[in-house]
Write a structure and sequence with these properties.
Blueprint lengths: L6 E7 L6 H9 L6 E6 L6 H5 L5 E5 L6 H14 L4 E5 L10 H9 L5 E5 L5 H4 L4 H18 L10 E5 H6 L11 H11 L4 E5 L13 H22 L6 H4 L4
Helix pairs in contact: 6-9, 8-9
Length: 251
């Protein structure tokens, strides 16, 4: 716990057998973590077998693949059901360092931010960590457009390492969001719609051969989904579209 707040770390997993244990070991080394929840999205490898050998880990298995967004929905539902006060989502692909968990949790516990992102862009960690140049350029360009449309100043919207307060997760219409990768973007847009401040911390990143990654085709689909989310947000601000959060964000 941290200042009496229960800290639950969730890991949306898919074919993560090669990196899950390393990620877990660094997460559990952060002494404030009370529980780790691994949600496996119908992996075809030994992810579930490995997860079930790890102490202080709750494992949930989707019998059929629900997608990255669907996986996160289960993650947050289980974390809240376990009594989490702070929920931290980190990918089990060992791309992000779990050593930032105490800092991110502290920012949420302090009441300064209901959501904190670990940014690969702040501090220049992305390229140094091996992010492909085309992904870096796409990330920067997409973030620039999103900041214009959403009226924010985030360094990136596309990190898979985030901390949330219980209160803010309970306010968001998560069930109405996409089951695909754009879920990540939708949840940030909803936070901005509600006027919630979003904090960021600089995060080094490691792009290992065994780390998970989406291909170019799905990256394009994700980028278009992010733009559609931002456009809908702006239209709703102008009163042209229906209220943003109340209707969710079906794409």
């Amino acid at each position: 716990m941290l200042e009496g707040q229960k800290i639950v770390v969730v890991m949306p997993a898919y074919n993560a057998e090669r990196t899950l244990r390393r990620t877990y070991e660094e997460v559990i080394a952060q002494e404030i973590v009370d529980l780790i929840i691994v949600v496996d999205d119908a992996s075809g490898d030994e992810t579930v077998t490995i997860a079930r050998t790890l102490p202080r880990v709750q494992v949930e298995v989707h019998p059929m693949n629900r997608g990255y967004g669907g996986n996160q929905k289960t993650c947050y539902r289980l974390a809240l059901g376990a009594g989490a006060d702070i929920v931290i989502m980190i990918h089990p692909d060992y791309q992000y360092t779990p050593q930032l968990i105490p800092a991110m949790a502290s920012l949420v516990v302090s009441g300064c931010y209901p959501c904190v992102l670990a940014s690969r862009i702040l501090g220049g960690g992305a390229l140094r960590g091996g992010m492909p140049l085309w992904k870096y350029v796409s990330n920067r360009a997409l973030t620039f457009v999103e900041n214009l449309l959403l009226g924010a100043k985030l360094s990136e919207y596309h990190t898979g390492y985030r901390a949330f307060s219980r209160e803010i997760l309970e306010r968001l219409p998560l069930k109405e969001n996409s089951e695909d990768f754009v879920f990540d973007n939708q949840i940030l847009a909803q936070l901005l719609w509600l006027g919630c401040p979003i904090g960021e911390v600089a995060c080094p990143a490691k792009y290992l051969p065994e780390a998970s990654s989406i291909n170019f085709r799905r990256s394009v689909r994700y980028g278009l989904g992010c733009l559609a989310t931002a456009v809908r947000f702006r239209l709703a601000r102008w009163g042209v579209a229906s209220p943003f959060v109340a209707k969710g964000l079906p794409l």
